[in-house]
Amino acid sequence: MDFALRMSGITQTFPGVVALDDVDFRVRRNEIHALIGENGAGKSTLVKIMSGVLTQDAGMIEFNGQRVSMTNPQQAQCLGISTIFQDLHLFPDLSVAENILMGREPKIRGTMIDWHELHRRAAELLNEIDVDIETKKLVRQLSIAQKQMVMVARALSQNASLIIMDEPTATLTSVEIENLFVLIRKLKANGTTVVFISHKLDEIFEITDRITILRDGKNVGELDTNGTSIDEVIRLMVGRTLEEEFPERFSDIGAEIISVMDLSTHQGVKKVFLNIHAGEVVGLFGLVGAGRSEVARAIFGIDRIESGQINMNEEPLRIKSPTEAIAQGIAFATEDRKHQGLVLGMSVKENITLPNMKSITTFSFIRHHAEDALVDDYIGRLNIKTPGKDQETQNLSGGNQQKVVIARWLCAKPKLLILDEPTQGIDVGAKREIYLLINELVSDGMAILLISSELPEILGMSDRVYVMHRGRVTGEFDKPGFNPENILACAAGIA
């Protein structure tokens, strides 16, 4: 068998954790190969090893039939392995051409950059993948999708024969995803091998040829995509059968907690209305740019309200900052957990207690026994998988990072919890744990505003749904009358 990449017996340990345990991973030449698994299964560690970011504790790597040893990313790039990480490594204040040919700029007499040739080569690379981007444009002016195309062009400029794409569709629209898939198929047709990593199983089945599944640091399956099913893949990923993706919930809906009337902001929210009751999950759905997050930011006091009214427990609410919102019993788990929801360099313990210091301090001194008891309780309640509470949060999987975000806000004992894309970028098993937690919280009387771009999640978890289009609420639906076609029509502004 002709393998582009063959990894055998790969083992990698960290303090208190075996991340990879004797893993074999084989990618055939000129195929699109999926690498999937739950958060914490070992995918990121394996990618870092094949990218030269980490050196494995044990095992062997062969690339294009030759045994190789990689101790840094430059060695991987020289071999022809290029990785496009989820956090795109680009220089925002440099041009598209400079980013594509960084470190390989054409020179005049070996000293000065030949700018004309730089832009010509960059344009040639972009044209090779049928991408129309002005090479003199600053990267900060590009969309996420365009930045990914720049990364692909950079990989081609490095003569990459294997491109690894880590969650490339996480923040793309459906149209952008389809354009990306066209590009990936073009790369394959031109002889490039692609390793594709995604939590979205429908994408896996649309774009890939074969699938490797990791679970608990082990390879538990290598399958032909056309010869398997989503149910089989889920069973291998989680080690059990998921009878229902969305767990059934029984809760009594109580009094109105919050109501929003004719709310407008300078960020594009226009006369929005909605209300949420105790023990109720209200979904807020819309296409990218519809204004969903902007509504949450206004309720939480991040964005200034231009006009309209917010009531809590039928009393007018005046919130001018997140601090005031927290004091009133409102919590907001942002969609950008890595940059706005967490301090990644701080420990799990510090992240959980950061906004809740009053409950564990006396005369400005931290009561460490109370802090440890509080954190241990939430680690247990939310099943946060971590070697210990002093572990840096950046070392946790995406699903466990999200649980730390939620634990932080549960410590504040909110009446209203706003969850913005709570399952974005996490696997099917971790999703179910988040769904079970949501059910538990509303059963205890909490009100939840659930913002999601995944319609099945909105329909499966919400008691009522508001739909937004261009900053306005264009529809409201109760659970017995949920109709996906009508909801999508409202989201598109054609209902």
Strand order of the largest sheet: 6-9-10-3-11-12
Overall mean pLDDT stands at 87
Poorly predicted runs of 5 or more residues: none
Strand content: 25-35%
Our count of helices gives 17
Overall geometry: globular
- Beta strand count: 24
Provide a descriptive summary of the structure in words.
With 495 residues, this protein is of the alpha/beta class. The protein is built from 17 helices and 24 strands. The strands form 6 sheets. It has a 6-stranded mixed β-sheet, sandwiched between helices. Strands 18-21-22-15-23-24 form a 6-stranded mixed β-sheet, with helices on both faces. A 4-stranded antiparallel β-sheet has the order 2-1-4-5, with helices on one face. A hairpin with a 3-residue loop joins strand 7 (107-108) and strand 8 (112-113). Helix 4 crosses helix 5. The radius of gyration is 24 Å and the shape is globular.
List the helices and strands and how they pair.
Layout: E1 3-14, E2 17-28, E3 32-37, H1 43-50, E4 58-63, E5 66-68, H2 73-79, E6 81-84, H3 96-100, E7 107-108, E8 112-113, H4 115-128, H5 144-157, E9 162-166, H6 174-189, E10 193-197, H7 201-207, E11 210-215, E12 218-224, H8 230-238, E13 256-265, E14 272-277, E15 281-286, H9 292-299, E16 305-312, E17 315-316, H10 322-327, E18 330-333, H11 337-341, H12 348-353, E19 361-362, E20 365-366, H13 368-381, H14 398-410, E21 416-420, H15 428-443, E22 447-451, H16 455-461, E23 464-469, E24 472-478, H17 484-491
Parallel strand pairs: 3-10, 3-11, 6-9, 9-10, 15-22, 15-23, 18-21, 21-22
Antiparallel strand pairs: 1-2, 1-4, 4-5, 7-8, 11-12, 13-14, 13-16, 16-17, 19-20, 23-24
Helix pairs in contact: 4-5
